[in-house]
Amino acid sequence: MHTINVRENTIFTADMGLPLRITYNNNDIKFTLLTEKPSTGVGDLEILIDGNTHRLRRFGNDWAEAGETTLLDSGLVKAIGKAIALRYRL
What are φ and ψ of residue 32, in 5° steps? Predict the structure, then answer.
């Protein structure tokens, strides 16, 4: 989320999220984690890929795209989920 803090007439802009990168099927995939500091108890995560927001849900050690429609390849979702789990030790 994008927030602006005003303190002593100075504007500071908070980060939009953590940019991450993986290689999937010989393609460089860049995405941004929008969920702040995910922890073990977090079930859903929001990511941004190519300007589109997607919600990922964790089921044990498996990951799937949450929602009525799945727009991402299931293998890509699992690879992104694994990268996030390794980064945050989930």
Answer: -120, 130
